[in-house]
């Protein structure tokens, strides 16, 4: 079970590090999906806040290898973030076919959360 949690966490860490970096440097490829899902272009402070939360979640998931509570915190953020994006996607009718990344990351976060709570 620890191997499953490690693989799921590693994938989420890669996602959050890349997304957090995109938010910090103001990369349009990272901001455009937020604009589509929120319905407005987020201001710079919100983009930086999301980047900081992404970096904190990545750090928590890495620390979760030694401390299950940290993995649970990082996974809870991931679950909330990708859950919100899925809800906004359905609410705003942003296409019939889901992109494979949101459900995948949502599921990975749920697996890490459950496994870290069981440890």
Overall pLDDT metric: 89
Instruction: Write down the overall geometry.
Output: globular
Oligomer kind: single chain
Total separate domains: 1
Spans of at least 5 consecutive residues whose pLDDT stays below 50 are none
Share of residues in helices: over 70%
- DSSP helical segment count: 5
Q: List SSEs in N-to-C order.
A: HHHHH
Number of strands: 0
- Secondary-structure content class: mainly alpha
Describe the structure.
The protein has one domain. The protein contains five helices and no strands. It is mainly alpha-helical and about 120 residues long. Helix 1 runs antiparallel to helix 3, helix 1 packs across helix 5 and helix 3 crosses helix 4. The model has no long low-confidence stretch (mean pLDDT about 90). The chain starts with a helix and ends with a helix.
Quick recap of the structure?
This protein has 119 residues and is an all-alpha fold.
Could you name the key traits of this structure?
globular, 119 residues, DoxX-like family protein, mainly alpha
SSE blueprint:
Layout (H helix, E strand, L loop, with lengths): L1 H24 L2 H11 L5 H20 L4 H24 L9 H18 L1
Helix pairs in contact: 1-3, 1-5, 3-4, 4-5
Protein name: DoxX-like family protein
